[in-house]
Design brief:
335 residues, alpha/beta, TIM Barrel, two-stranded antiparallel ribbon, 12 helices, 15% strand, globular
């Protein structure tokens, strides 16, 4: 294992003022975003959408990496250049989503665990040859106060898989991004969200340490601490930031390579304002930045809508969203 390379890549991923674009939606998820906008649900339209984002001039000023889906890492721009080559020429690290989605956790109704460990060593070898420098595995944690979810069993099962995945990634020279997403849907309060997020991250790193994962060569992708969408509680950025920074400082080892945030269903504005306040709660022992999907992409796709004549207009909005997210990662948004 080349620990120096892993640590250097992780540091590059959380370089000041830069973040990571999550463009790794599965085909099904991509189509869910296309359908309401009348965009044809075809491979060519998925490729065109990804090309709009990945080849946008100037995106390298604000992006350190892009997470790709298996289909996307194999695709090319219209000029025949592989997307991975386009990114590498810009100094952007290609990443790859490697989990295969969730299935029900046996014996625990209402909870899920991610699949994808079988054959992962061989897949990592292929992705590394394609130029992937990092990877992502997403676990899903549900909060249900009536059913006392999440259970300890769910947290342990997902943490164990994340740790095994991380070891396989590092063996292949690929930086693992571990994403234990605490879902913000539901009626839970922000106090409950803080409790569950803290416990989730604590258990995660207990497993990482137990299996000897190289923490400086690892990136944590985490949820912000926010109230459930159906809780009736307002989302107050200063409160989100205070609770999120407290969870991180108390539960993430100082040796971890970096921390990035998912937008998790927040609006673009909410994700930006909340990140800005979190950044202002520093300093932190690790780099802190964004790894957004909808938090950056939604305003862009709302303009594009599959219309090639709208590509440049959509790209202008894309670069603006990257610029705003970059400023938020530094705590200077709106200044």
């Amino acid at each position: 294992m080349d620990t120096q390379k892993l640590q250097a890549t992780a540091a590059q991923m959380v370089a000041k003022g830069k973040g990571i674009l999550a463009a790794d939606e599965s085909n099904a998820t991509c189509h869910k975003r296309f359908a309401p906008l009348g965009i044809p649900e075809t491979e060519d339209m998925r490729r065109a959408w990804r090309e709009l984002l990945l080849t946008a001039p100037g995106n390298e000023e604000y992006l350190s990496g892009v997470i790709l889906f298996d289909e996307t890492i194999r695709q090319k721009a219209v000029d025949g250049t592989p997307f991975t080559e386009t990114l590498l020429k810009k100094g952007i690290i290609p990443g790859i989503k490697v989990d295969k989605g969730v299935v029900d956790l046996a014996g625990h109704p209402g909870e899920v665990v991610s699949e994808g460990l079988d054959g992962l060593r061989a897949r990592f070898a292929e992705y590394a040859a394609m130029g992937a420098g990092f990877s992502k595995w997403r676990a899903v944690v549900m909060i249900d106060t009536e059913k006392n979810l999440p259970t300890e069993a769910c947290l342990r099962a997902n943490a164990s898989q994340l740790a095994l995945y991380a070891l396989l990634a590092q063996e292949a020279g690929i930086v693992p991004m571990v994403e234990p997403e605490v879902i913000l849907d539901g009626v839970h309060t922000i106090e409950k969200a803080e409790e569950v997020t803290a416990r989730t991250i604590k258990v995660l790193f207990e497993e990482m340490v137990r299996l000897d994962v190289f923490l400086p060569g690892l990136i944590l992708k985490t949820s912000m601490v926010v109230p459930g969408k159906k809780s009736g509680q307002p989302m107050i950025a200063s409160d989100v930031a205070l609770r999120t920074s407290r969870v991180l400082k108390e539960n993430v080892p100082a040796t971890v390579g970096g921390v990035v945030f998912l937008s998790g269903g927040q609006s673009a504005l909410e994700a930006t304002v909340n990140l800005n306040e979190i950044a202002k709660c520093g300093p932190y022992p690790w780099g802190v930045t964004y790894s957004y999907s909808r938090g950056i992409q939604q305003p862009v796709i709302d303009i594009w809508r599959g219309d090639a004549t709208k590509t440049e207009e959509a790209r202008t909005v894309f670069i603006q969203r990257l610029k705003e997210s970059s400023a938020a990662s530094l705590g200077t948004y709106g200044v």
